[in-house]
Amino acid sequence: VKQQRLTEDHTAVNDTLEVARGFISDTERTVAEVDAMVQNVTEYHAAIDGASQKLMEKTERLSLADRDLVQTADDHAEELDRQANELEEDLSASDANGFVQRAISAANVYNNIVKYIDDANITSLTTLNLSQRAEDAITGVNKQLGYLVTQSDNVFKESVSLRSEQIEVESEVADKLKYMEETKETMDKNTKKLSEIVQDISGIQADRTPQRLEFTLKVAEGTLNRSAEVLQTVTPISSKVEEWANNMRNNEYSTAAYEQAVSSAGDAVENLNVLVPELLDKLKVVEEKKPVNNVTTNIMRIRELIAQARSVAKKVS
Length: 317
Fold this sequence. Notes:
317 residues; 5 helices; Methane Monooxygenase Hydroxylase, Chain G, domain 1
């Protein structure tokens, strides 16, 4: 579930980055258009500044000239103006409509230039507003990216913690499996001992001497000791089985190795179940042949140990 949530967060980050790339691309195109407009406006202003500079230069030159020369130029200008008026009257008499039309066209061209400059200014302001909005959007995207990066770091730290816990659990399971293998070896040894006991008991005959009965008593006592060893081995197995049953209920961890070890232990218990009935039969023969108090007491203790071993075998199987 946490890995799926990490994948979803990663996908959300990629989507946000893709949207941010779109905003940045649009902003770059808008900035390029603004640069082109600014370049055009700059050229217009440069042309106007050039004309103004030339006019100022002419004015300065006129201010430095001789007063008489200026007066002469003024008179000459008046004469030119008079001649221009006369020429205008002559043109009006001959082709007034054509001249006026050309003058109107020239004025319209000038007005169009002024209009283009105004439009360029308006477009520049609009582009500036769009750029500011794009900048605000980029700021918001950066904040969201920062949040997502922080969240991704938290998820990564949590995944590292879970990985450490998994490693610890795997190590614990490996220790349990090793313990089960050692327990199986011990059970195999006890099974062999029980088999030897069965063979010893099978040699008992009803017509043997008291020395044989004493030997039988020793065999029974040895059987008791070996049965006690089996019980000491089986008891921790029962405790571990209950502990594993509690620890391995979590389905996130693999139980294949655990089940294999339990199966091996079950096989050993099956072998034990085969030998135990034979041992019980032989003990019954001993009870019938020589019901001595010590022998009878030992046989009863052996039966109790066998019953406990069977209980453990049921838990393992």
